[in-house]
Specification:
The protein is an alpha+beta fold. It has a two-stranded antiparallel ribbon. The mean pLDDT is 75.
Length: 73
């Protein structure tokens, strides 16, 4: 029947994601998306990538440190 939907926003890092407020489908994981969006808008992800260094042996690295800090950047 008539579903009440309220589209709140789509995060800048991935516009295919749409955050909606719906009583029938709630997830506690949405807080991570909101936190990531806030960190990107405040410039924290760029700051982390700039100031944190990776001391691992480059020949043994499977996942680069920068991709772990901010997978989209």
């Amino acid at each position: 029947m008539g579903e009440d939907q309220c589209s709140l926003f789509s995060p800048d890092f991935n516009r295919s994601i749409h955050i909606e407020a719906r009583a029938d489908r709630l997830s506690s994981d949405a807080g991570a998306l909101l936190l990531r969006q806030l960190m990107e808008r405040l410039g924290y992800t760029a700051l982390f990538r700039k100031h944190l260094s990776d001391a691992r042996d480059p020949d043994r690295v499977t996942h680069p440190f920068r991709s772990c800090c901010a997978p989209c950047c």
